[in-house]
């Protein structure tokens, strides 16, 4: 998971290297609730903020904030095309050689390979090139203290926060619930892996994953579950209806097809489904025994979950789905 975090870290690591100063200074403020601005900002929040958000305290971070990525990868002569190309080039095959943030790799590790859509990565890169990104209050002091070997770069169009109070479609609302919960679980799990290792992460999942998911469900007034056809915890076993949804997503991913969330209205409530896709980080606990999962971790998993079925996965496979149901409040 340590590597998962850097996934997002370096996905944008290469991003921030491209933007001309004159274009930054000539623009002021835009409405973020429509058009490509909204698309790029939302994608950045969805794909990157689990690890790279600006609100996390410096000592508790599991990856660099977006402004650090931008400052490392941007100079006055970088073009928008170069910027987007650098990001996509790195994400296709992450490596230390391609990274411009050696300190981040030393602290957080190199991000693992994960399957991303090129058009989404380029939308994120274009947004970062043209607009200011959120930055932590401590960031400039961090630079003054000489802790970061970079020049500060965060010019661009200033954008306001996306209007969270406007009515959302059921699909948008379901995705919001899934991403918020993923962020909370990921932050805690990745922090555990970084500080204590994979074995402790298994123990964390056993003791804390359910309570954290339940607390997020309560906070968002929804029922949030992660279910699988090959469950580790029997409580996460998919029912017949969910098994059909999992199979549908599996076929789409295996065939390289685009897929969208599935949202239905059942008994007056919206039901939302979205796949959980594996990356190389996941294989530390869900890959092949004695190949990507070390013996000590295997022994712990088998002790905690005698009926475990959640091994044998490879990268970019459907490990399960988010199954979330909620009422019509704040949905179109």
From TrEMBL:
Keywords, sorted A to Z: Heme, Iron, Metal-binding
Residue span(s) of domain Cytochrome c: 35-132
InterPro entries: Cyt_c-like_dom (IPR009056), Cyt_c-like_dom_sf (IPR036909), Tll0287-like_dom (IPR021796)
Record-level Gene Ontology MF annotations: electron transfer activity; heme binding; metal ion binding
Protein name: Cytochrome c family protein
Species annotation: Nonlabens agnitus
């Amino acid at each position: 998971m340590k590597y998962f975090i850097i996934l997002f870290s370096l996905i944008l690591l290469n991003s921030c290297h491209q933007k001309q100063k004159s274009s930054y200074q000539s623009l002021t403020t835009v409405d973020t609730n429509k058009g490509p601005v909204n698309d790029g900002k939302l994608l950045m929040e969805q794909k990157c903020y689990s690890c790279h958000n600006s609100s996390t305290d410096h000592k508790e971070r599991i990856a660099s904030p977006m402004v650090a990525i931008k400052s490392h990868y941007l100079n006055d002569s970088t073009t928008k095309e170069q910027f987007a190309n650098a990001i996509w080039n790195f994400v296709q095959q992450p490596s230390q050689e391609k990274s411009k943030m050696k300190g981040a790799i030393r602290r957080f590790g190199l991000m693992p390979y994960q399957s991303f859509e090129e058009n989404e990565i380029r939308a994120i890169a274009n947004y970062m090139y043209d607009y200011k990104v959120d930055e932590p209050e401590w960031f400039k002091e961090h630079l003054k203290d000489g802790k970061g070997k970079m020049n500060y770069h965060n010019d661009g169009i200033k954008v306001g926060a996306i209007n969270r109070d406007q009515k959302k479609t059921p699909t948008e609302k379901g995705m919001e619930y899934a991403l918020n919960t993923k962020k909370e679980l990921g932050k805690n799990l990745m922090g555990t892996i970084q500080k204590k290792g994979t074995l402790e992460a298994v123990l964390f999942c056993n003791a804390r994953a359910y309570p954290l998911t339940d607390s997020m469900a309560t906070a968002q007034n929804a029922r949030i579950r992660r279910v699988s056809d090959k469950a580790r915890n029997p409580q996460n076993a998919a029912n017949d209806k969910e098994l059909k949804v999992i199979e549908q997503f599996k076929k789409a991913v295996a065939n390289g097809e685009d897929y969208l969330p599935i949202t239905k209205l059942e008994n007056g409530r919206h039901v939302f489904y979205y796949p959980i896709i594996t990356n190389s980080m996941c294989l530390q606990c869900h890959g092949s025994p004695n190949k990507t999962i070390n013996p000590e971790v295997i022994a712990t998993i088998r002790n905690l979950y005698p009926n475990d079925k959640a091994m044998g996965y490879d990268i970019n496979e459907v490990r399960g789905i988010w199954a979330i149901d909620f009422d019509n409040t704040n949905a179109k």
